[in-house]
Amino acid sequence: MRSPGESRGGPRLWLERIARGLALLLLLWLLVDVFRGRAEPLRASVQERDLSAELSRWSTAADPASVHLESEGSIAPFQRDWLAALSGAGTRVTWESRGGVPLAIAVEPVADPEGGVRAWIAAPSGTRVEMEDPAGPLDSLAAAGGGARLLVRSSPAELRARAGGSTAGSAVTDSLVLGRLLLLGRVEWESKFVAAALEERGWKLDARLRLSPRGDVRQGPATSIDTARYAAVLVLDSIGNAEAQAVGRFVREGGGAVIAVSAADAAALAALSAGRSTAALQGREPFDSTLSEPRRSLELAPIAPREDAVVLERRGNAVAVAARRIERGRVVTTGYRDTWRWRMGGGEGSVQAHRDWWADLVAGVAHAGRVTREARPDTDEAPLATLVDLLGPARAPPAGPGPGFGISRAWLFGLLAAALLLEWASRRLRGAP
Amino acid sequence: MKPFTFATGIYASGDWESGQLVPAVVIDSLARHTTLLVSPGGVNVPLDSAELFEYPFLFLTGHLAVRFTAAERRNLLRFVDRGGFVFMDDHNHDINGVFHKTATEELARLFGPLRQVPNDHELYRAFFHFRDGPPATNHEMNGWGDNLVHEHLLGVIRGGRIDVLYSSKDYSSEWSMHPESKRFMEVDPSRFAVNIVVYALTR
């Protein structure tokens, strides 16, 4: 027979049963969750600033099944290698970049007696790249056409490029051993002033210049033209067949040549030159020192470049300087005539500018012996590319069930306790044991 | 390519034009003895003009006092600093004349004191060999003027190179002739001019 309380509390009994059932269900859920949680591997996600500490922990205390890194672009090489090692040991490593800029840098010593280092920087067009050496900031460049380049005369051992949160660095690994230059052509103002400019620059120079049937003007011994003695040959006027063939051999063996296009029209040199000359454009006389581009005052025989030539300088649509590679050597052909007028008649600084221009032409082709430097600073030439190479492309962390299908154990426990309390209170209030 | 052009400097004071036959004789010698590309005629170029810098070889001569203007001094200094070569010759036959005094003062003011060019200097071997230094002129030898042979040329020598060559030997008279006259001479008297030009073009 039912008690009066039981008959009066029909809905209450149902409430108690529901609370009891809910408590049992939650208890089961928690048990399942606890056991499932033990079986589920550890998933770690880390910000870059905490990476060092986490790497140590992952490698000692914890053993994560997967690791996800949120990079801001300045992950250190040792951290990258450490992540790669974790990946190699079976941990799934994923990463994403926040603010990192794809950046790469390469540096090379310049074949110039004044020394210097040339840096090529790869970065998205429009990126502002800050350059620095170990002593501090050097310059700021805007990347265009996928990159930028910088010539640093102070010859630092290392250069770094910064953009966004990314940093790339590269070190000079070789020292150059420069040979001499050989000047071929005729006695004229151009040969005199080109020789002066390059000697002032620090080049040691030999010369063989036609002067008369009695003989040539010679500076230096009459040795063969080879890379053991010469870094580059400058041909400013037509030369004989035998000499032209020697210059060709020299270039193919790795030497450099700077050829005036008027000299290149001769058959013997045409095969070497980066192009042939076309109808000359007159310069200005007297030299106009007020022009922003002083070489516009010079007469120019525009170059019709060969297919494999690279244009280095233009005057309007006309090609002024072009270069090409021949086997192991390089050739630059210039269409400018009487560049000495720039040095004599140019504005302030024209002597230096004329010297720099010729030195740059020579540096672009000169053969130089290399001595590997023993001390090599640790550098990171292409951090993002290396990261992709080691860990694969950026991707989101692997999806997986979280604890309690998204409800925390504390909430589950709270709900369980509330259900039991409700069931117990209901029973006590109706007088049941 | 521009040929070598013999340029005579025009200065405001004195008689810069006193050696008008010299260019033709020098050009003739260059053409006879060398394969240099040479302009068939010389030019007269004001020292205070921008045109000066189109002619890196500059010949200066005269009989009278030389006083450069400020613009001439400025240009001449820049001309030499940039690699131009100046050959200045006293057209008188005397010693310590007014041209010599004033011209050497002007040069010293611009470039520092003139120094004797050693008689074994490479200038005397640049093309023809002059074992005893600068060739003597007829005026020196015949007693017309000072009756003394000037043993040395003077020069502004910087970094081992002669930038300014100064002569008291009156080559301006020695080389004042019509080039055709040379065929009556045993030795071309303007051979030394070839050395000066070749030196300027190669050093």
Rounded to the nearest angstrom, the distance between the terminal CA atoms of chain A is: 18 Å
CATH architecture of the largest domain in chain A: 3-Layer(aba) Sandwich
Q: Which blocks of ≥5 consecutive residues of chain A have pLDDT under 50?
A: none
| Overall residue-averaged pLDDT value of chain B | 92
What is the subunit organization of this protein? heterodimer
User: What is the correct CATH architecture of chain B?
Assistant: 3-Layer(aba) Sandwich
Distance between the termini of chain B: 19 Å
- What is the averaged pLDDT score of chain A? 88
Main β sheet profile of chain A: 8 strands, mixed
Which term fits the overall shape of chain B? globular
The third-level CATH topology of the largest domain in chain A is Rossmann fold
The number of distinct structural domains of chain A comes to 4
Describe this structure in words.
- The complex is a heterodimer of chains A (433) and B (203).
- By secondary structure, chain A is α/β, with parallel strands linked by helices.
- Chain A folds into 4 domains: 4-39 and 404-429; 43-100 and 384-400, no CATH class; 104-173 and 374-381, Sandwich (Immunoglobulin-like); 177-370, Class I glutamine amidotransferase (GATase) domain (Rossmann fold, 3-Layer(aba) Sandwich).
- Chain A has 12 helices and 24 strands.
- In chain A, β13 (205-212) and β14 (215-219) form a beta hairpin.
- In chain A, α3 runs parallel beside α4.
- Chain A is rod-shaped, with a radius of gyration of 38 Å.
- Chain A starts with a helix and ends with a helix.
- Chain B contains 6 helices and 7 strands, in the order βαββαβαβαββαα.
- Chain A binds chain B through residues 186-190, 192-193, 196, 209-214, 217, 237, 262, 285-287, 289, 337-338, 340-341, 343-345, 350-351, and chain B through 1-2, 4, 33-37, 49-51, 53-54, 56, 79, 81-84, 127, 198, 201-203.
